[in-house]
From TrEMBL:
<feature type="compositionally biased region" description="Pro residues">
    <location>
        <begin position="153"/>
        <end position="163"/>
    </location>
</feature>
<feature type="compositionally biased region" description="Low complexity">
    <location>
        <begin position="310"/>
        <end position="326"/>
    </location>
</feature>
<feature type="region of interest" description="Disordered">
    <location>
        <begin position="301"/>
        <end position="363"/>
    </location>
</feature>
<feature type="compositionally biased region" description="Low complexity">
    <location>
        <begin position="164"/>
        <end position="174"/>
    </location>
</feature>
<feature type="region of interest" description="Disordered">
    <location>
        <begin position="153"/>
        <end position="208"/>
    </location>
</feature>
<feature type="compositionally biased region" description="Low complexity">
    <location>
        <begin position="351"/>
        <end position="363"/>
    </location>
</feature>
<protein>
    <submittedName>
        <fullName>Uncharacterized protein</fullName>
    </submittedName>
</protein>
Length: 363
């Protein structure tokens, strides 16, 4: 998969959002979910607190862990039309078997004031999805659905402007010709001419958040690793250098889980696919390199001297380990393949014996 620095990784390596799930709520003018439940007792409808009574979502998506039924469900708002246009594998969503009954005097998706619930509330029908890695799914939804969000919140960490974009008025060249005079338009009623001023300038574009899909990489890899792009071996070496064993396992668990979520939903944006696959490849290579160095340092040094490719090949889905802990699903990885940027399908999930044990990674 070929990729360019401008489409894959950002120039500014700060995370624009610290809580992707809360940012997704605010993007749909919501604050939080008001309904508490367990994975074994999912309600047909979910109430959510409203911040603004417009541009609200159509459904509440309940994210379940495919292997750990005791895992606490994650609830995120979605607009089904935007979700269907963004992802190819929407068949993974399912509706509860029992038909939901609409609340009295209220319609789905219509906000209403309920003092008992603390103000404006909206009731949304429930959709359920079993994800390989629920903690990383809100992050995937936020960046994949970004262009369709009705209320794009500003980034929490705004990149500073480039010094090259500012020039002092003293350094600007002086114009060599006088400015043009206002155009004249002949009057049909007399022989005189009436000066017509120029058309007013259009209003400036509204300030848009400095967020792009490429900034997804800032949530997956440290800044020191992103700075080595596009050197794939250098990125893997940098990740192994800046992370201890626990942090490296956390990167492998989270990036591998995100890649399996990409295979599950198959986002249409190739940039999302490329970033997720590269992040998993880099984390996996760093983990394997550290394990090989500890097992045989001399062989690992000889291997480093061999010619290396500058970009990883199409990745496979990380296999879930048999003995997992909270936050990482078990069982086989999904076999649904996502199309890569060159039109080919990514290979199905295959076991990887060198994949590290999973640890939970928060948002």
């Amino acid at each position: 998969m070929a990729a360019t620095p401008t489409t894959l990784y950002p120039r500014w390596y700060k995370r624009p959002f610290e809580s992707p799930r809360q940012t997704l709520y605010h993007a749909y003018n919501l604050d939080s979910s008001l309904t508490s439940f367990s994975a074994d007792d999912i309600p047909p409808v979910i109430d959510m607190r409203v911040l603004q009574p417009h541009d609200l979502p159509t459904h509440a998506l309940v994210v379940l862990d495919g292997s750990q039924r005791s895992h606490e469900p994650i609830v995120v708002p979605i607009h089904f039309a935007a979700f269907n246009a963004t992802f190819q594998n929407v068949d993974n969503l399912r509706v509860l078997s029992q038909a939901p009954q609409p609340p009295t005097k209220h319609r789905y998706g219509t906000p209403y004031n309920d003092p008992a619930k603390g103000g404006w509330t909206v009731t949304l029908p429930t959709l359920v999805i079993e994800a390989p890695h629920p903690p990383s799914l809100p992050l995937l939804l936020l960046y994949a659905l970004w262009d369709t969000l009705p209320n794009q919140p500003p980034a929490e960490l705004t990149p500073p402007p480039s010094p090259d974009s500012f020039k002092s008025s003293k350094t600007l060249p002086m114009p060599t010709t006088p400015p043009p005079t206002p155009a004249t338009v002949a009057s049909f009623g007399s022989q005189s001419s009436i000066a017509s001023p120029r058309a007013p300038s259009p209003p400036p574009e509204p300030a848009r958040p400095l967020v792009c899909p490429a900034q997804l990489a800032a949530h997956l890899l440290p800044a020191a690793v992103l700075g080595e792009f596009p050197g794939y071996p250098a990125q893997a070496a940098a990740l192994a250098r800046v992370c201890d064993d626990a942090a490296l396992r956390a990167h492998c668990a989270f990036n591998g889980g995100l890649w399996r979520n990409v295979l599950l939903l198959a986002p249409r944006a190739h940039a999302i696919q490329d970033i997720a696959s590269n992040a998993w490849n880099i984390a996996s290579a760093a983990y394997k390199g550290r394990a090989e160095f500890r097992a045989d340092p001399a062989r690992a040094r000889r291997r480093e001297q061999l010619p290396q490719r500058t970009h990883p090949t199409a990745p496979t889905a990380p296999a879930a380990p048999a003995d997992t802990v909270a936050g990482e699903p078990g069982g086989p990885a999904p076999t649904t393949a996502a199309s890569t940027s060159d039109g080919r399908e990514a290979p199905p999930a295959t076991p990887d014996a060198s994949a590290p044990a999973a640890v939970q990674e928060g948002e």
